[in-house]
Design brief:
This is Small ribosomal subunit protein uS3c. Helix content is 31%, strand content 30%. By secondary structure, the chain is of the alpha/beta class. The protein folds into two domains: 98 residues, GMP Synthetase, Chain A, domain 3 (2-Layer Sandwich), CATH 3.30.300.20; 98 residues, Ribosomal protein S3 C-terminal domain.
């Protein structure tokens, strides 16, 4: 049967780069990996806590981590950086992450970059769809709205898949909609992908989004 591979890992070195850049001794590798995960979770939790209730979308597309001997550089790519524009908030976030890591001899530096087309990014779209599904909007409506938003952002194709107890039905099923072309087999094609879990009242739904950006 067709083996599905993560489109980002499949394109590493061709059209896709790593989100964490550092070198480690084999014995220390697992610790560093867990540290990265801690940093990412800590930032996401902080943003979630301080979100305004009005917009359900956090707008974090990805968090890049670069480590040197005495410095950890974290770059947060955001679609709507209203929350973290104030320097006070960034300092507070730095303190929170440093407490979580308790790193004494390393400096932590957090920078924020704004993305041009937020809705051309799968993570932000998935959050948008998740917000809609939590408000009990029918899943087809939510997906169609998301696809409209992506088309305005100027992408070449998108595929959205939702799995689980859709609309609270007893039997779980998988539904997907594709617009434009999504060439998953072509390594040259720059494809952005994310999988996202939503906790609804009936249970957990999984959202997967593939966005075809351009061909190199």
């Amino acid at each position: 049967m067709g083996q599905k591979i993560n489109p980002l890992g499949f394109r590493l070195g061709a059209t896709q780069g790593h989100h964490s850049l550092w070198f480690a001794q084999p014995k220390k590798y697992s610790e560093d990996l867990q540290e990265d995960q801690k940093i990412r979770n800590c930032i996401k939790n902080y943003v979630q806590k301080n979100m305004k209730i009005a917009s359900s979308v956090e707008g974090i597309s990805c968090i890049e981590i670069q480590k040197r001997i005495d410095l950890i550089q974290v770059i947060i790519y955001m679609g709507f950086p209203k929350l973290l524009i104030e320097p006070r908030r960034i300092e507070e976030l730095q303190m929170t992450v440093q407490k979580e890591l308790n790193c004494v001899n390393r400096k932590l530096n957090i920078a924020i970059t704004r993305i041009e087309n937020p809705y051309g990014n799968p993570n932000i779209l998935a959050e948008f769809i998740a917000g809609q599904l939590k408000n009990r909007v029918s899943f087809r409506k939510a997906i169609k709205k998301a696809i409209e938003l992506t088309e305005q952002a100027g992408t070449k194709g998108i595929q959205v898949q939702i799995a689980g107890r859709i609309d609270g039905k007893e039997i779980a099923r998988v539904e997907w909609i594709r617009e434009g072309r999504v060439p998953l087999q072509t390594i040259r094609a720059k494809i952005d992908y994310c999988s996202y879990t939503v906790r609804t009242i009936y249970g957990v739904l999984g959202i997967k989004i593939w966005i075809f950006i351009e061909e190199e």
